[in-house]
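Render this sequence as a predicted structure.
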Amino acid sequence: MEVTMLLRTEPLESQVAALISSHPEQPLIPITQKNVAAMVETATVQRFTSPSGDHPVIVWHPTKPLLLTLYDIALWAIDGIPIHQFGSLGFGGWYNNGSHFAVQDKLPAYRIDAYDPLRQQIDYLESSASLMMYPNPSRPLIGLTDTSQIHGWIPHDRTIMTFDSVPHPMSQYLQWSPDGNWLLMLARSRYTPEYRLTEGAFLSMWNAEGHLLWHQHLNILDVSRPQWSPDSQHFVTRQMNIVQWWDRDGTIVNEYHLPSTPNMNHETLYHDSKSILAWSPTGRYLAVPSATAVYLFMADGELIGELFAGNESGIMCLAWHPTSPLITIGYWDGIIRLWSLEGICLHSIPAYSQGSKSLGTPYMLRWRTDGSYLAAALRNYSVHLYGLADQDD
């Protein structure tokens, strides 16, 4: 691969800097019945028609009041003011603890661009239809995968690392551990029209320097994308109603068969992998949804119970609150509910009222890291922001 460094040619956008600085970091807002009930919609940050038919994806900045929306790539302030709309379709994410972000254009051209948070371009890499990128959350490194090889790109010094190779099928999904030290790959052979796999799957692990640590064949179908624990020591996988806990060394340490086969929509399973297996922010709990309820486990796989029923329309997505023991669940009928771990519904956000209810179905829920705002990506290609009121208001 050839990498070309672009020199910064435009001046620092002072109006963007002023916009960001006008939204200083807010103190953590404790969850109370009062401020949860006072949640209000603060902005609709995006409405677009995606030529690819993809639903929006939400990527919050780790600390700043900024979020990226994908696949129609755009950078937004927390009040819904657009900072920059890239005019292209693709993927993106923050890397190196939020010091930079990268976007990968799929339309109209194939390339990867690296930026600082003020949208100043620092580098780019020519891409292709088969190349996928995976930004490292804690290092200045971006994982790249195509049909034959894994690479690591360091945008700031034109370095391309070639990872130790493994035999793997066509479809790959990479995930960096939260600490940025380990790269896990799920490789799947191919899909049938029913999203089922015909030849099983493979799991492989590298360190951040590109050295292969282990490689395993999984003789299973419909395996989900693995999800790392927050401490980067473990990860979990799911095969419909079977949940498996893995040590980082590739050893399965626990397995649980859910009482009934979850009848979750395949479209949701593929769209938001963090809703299939959702770790709490501290890593103490794991939430696993079925069609109409959520199973709650301790980190080691011990089942606590089945919680958060109360809606028969079907669970589409869920998200833990980052600072309080609270789970937010989005349902097929468009309602979003906030639950305590005791199974008490603290608040319901009504379905999006304009047009068909089905078009208001939430496909992804993401809290800002300080817990002050909830972003919901809806089926009508829009992202809505909801804010918690200060408890003294």
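Summary. The chain has a mean pLDDT of 77. The domain at 23-387 is CATH 2.130.10.10 (Methylamine Dehydrogenase; Chain H).
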